[in-house]
Design brief:
Blueprint lengths: L3 H34 L9 E5 L5 H10 L6 H11 L8 E5 L5 H9 L7 E5 L6 H11 L5 H7 L11 E5 L4 H16 L3 H6 L3 H15 L3 H17 L6 H8 L35 H8 L8 E4 L5 E4 L2 H11 L2
Antiparallel strand pairs: 1-2, 3-4, 5-6
């Protein structure tokens, strides 16, 4: 005979267990949900994220995850389609100066107002800090060039050249922080190779800055890099026109023969070794060219009037190239 009291107690126990399991599972899911909506540890502070026209909702949240603005593209997608209308996503560039939750990030790109009113600031590879300041002053209403240059003293080479989308009222301090932060982000994966390179990071950046002005393609950068590093090893002078151009503040086309005799540590015709500082702010291609130079037998190079490179193994071959291509 079945004891109904025992059945009743067992049934109640099972229900309590099921309810407890559901509550525990729900609590765990809520904790995981809360955690996944928190800003990532490496949230892209002082960085712009551009949402282009025509992207699908899935592509948009994937872009946000790649930029480390959200922890999970799946969760961001759920937030986007559950609490917002994906059709309201505003194409444009969004500047983030502080970490935001996934909810806040999605809100930023779907709110009724347009995306941040930003200006496009292109800082070319190889340009000096002074040239950066001149370009920034043209497009930013609150930018103080003198303040920027004073604060950036000693940072030549470590301000990353790129195309930035930033608020029109960006200040000198904000731009400097953005350029320094971007440099650290961009070269992070190259820190170890630079540390183990004979020139170390500072020397790598100096040589990369020379390559930006001496070469004009990835291939020529790697070949010229190999030549200049070989010259350093042999104790030969680098003889780079770009370093004199930097010291005198005149374009390469205006240099005269007597300029090669100027007594300045940036005169690589007169003094062996690298220049005391970088002569501009190099990009990744030139940095990579220093880390991975092309190994050739060349010791000399020139560029003709059309920008084509001509290499030589010996000084006699070099003089022949000069006579042939630089008439």
């Amino acid at each position: 005979m079945i004891d109904m009291d025992i059945v009743g107690r067992t049934s109640r126990f099972l229900w309590l267990w099921v309810i407890g399991f559901i509550i525990a599972t729900a609590s765990l899911l809520l904790v995981l949900f809360w955690w996944q909506t928190r800003p990532p540890a490496d949230f892209p502070i002082n960085t712009t994220i551009t949402i282009t026209r025509g992207l699908s909702a899935a592509a948009i949240v994937e872009k946000l995850e790649e930029a480390k603005a959200v922890r999970s593209s799946l969760l961001a997608h759920i937030i986007l389609i559950t609490w917002h209308d994906p059709n309201n996503v505003k194409a444009g560039s969004y500047y983030f100066d502080t970490p935001l939750t996934a909810f806040s990030v999605i809100d930023r790109i779907t709110r009724d107002a347009d995306g941040d009113t930003l200006v496009r600031l292109t800082l070319p590879e190889g340009y000096t800090t002074k040239e950066f300041a001149l370009l920034a002053a043209e497009g930013l209403s609150q930018f103080d060039g003198t303040e920027f240059l004073n604060s950036a003293a000693g940072m030549e080479g470590y301000l990353f050249p790129d195309t930035y989308y930033i608020p029109e009222d960006f200040t000198a301090a904000e731009l400097l922080t953005l350029l320094k932060t971007t440099y650290e982000q961009k070269v992070a994966s190259r820190k170890e190779p630079m540390a183990s390179h004979p020139l170390k990071e500072d020397g790598v950046i100096v040589l990369a800055s020379l390559l930006e002005r001496e070469a004009n393609t990835e291939e020529s950068m790697r070949i010229v890099s190999g030549i200049l590093q070989k010259r350093l090893q042999l104790g030969m002078r680098l003889q780079t026109d770009a370093s004199i151009e930097y010291a005198l503040g005149r374009p390469l086309s205006d240099l005269r023969a007597e300029d090669l005799e100027r007594d300045t540590p940036y005169n690589t015709y007169k003094y062996a070794g690298l220049t005391p500082t970088p002569i501009g702010n190099p990009g990744l291609n030139s940095i990579d060219a220093v880390l991975e130079p092309e190994d050739t037998e060349y010791l000399y190079y020139i560029t003709d009037e059309e920008g084509n490179f001509h290499y030589a193994k010996t000084f006699d071959e070099h003089r022949a190239n000069i006579a042939k291509y630089l008439k």
